[in-house]
Amino acid sequence: MDICEENRALENQVWEFIEYVDDVEEESITDYLVWQWRKLNDRFNYLSVAKHTKQKENPTSGADFELELWIHTYR
Fold first, then answer.
1. How far apart are CA 68 and CA 48, in angstroms?
2. What is the phi-psi region of residue 62: left when phi exceeds 0, alpha when psi lies from -120 to 50, beta otherwise?
3. Which residues on adjacent β-strands are paired with residue 71?
4. Strand pairing partners for 49?
5. Inter-CA distances, 71 with 1, 44, 45, Å
6. Burial of 33 (0-12, 13-18, 19+ CB in 10 A)
7. What is the CA radius of gyration of the chain?
8. pLDDT value at position 12?
9. What is the mean pLDDT of each run of 10 residues along the chain (75 residues)?
10. 10, 44, 45, 73: which has the fewest C-beta neighbours closer than 10 Å?
11. What pLDDT, on a 0 to 100 scale, did the predictor assign at position 19?
């Protein structure tokens, strides 16, 4: 399975989680995604996440977090 397929599978897991836990907050989903992305592939050598509070998120971009991801490939 390639990274795109693995990420689609992760997306399906998140949707299923939301279906069964209808009161889950965005922050919990963000934490779960970051954890799973770190496990997803060893090429994710550097993953930095700056989470936004709801107060910061609203007046700026509306984003829940900023993600910086470095993927190194060796040939």
1. 5
2. left
3. 44
4. 67
5. 17, 5, 6
6. buried
7. 14
8. 93
9. 81 91 83 82 68 66 71 63
10. 73
11. 92
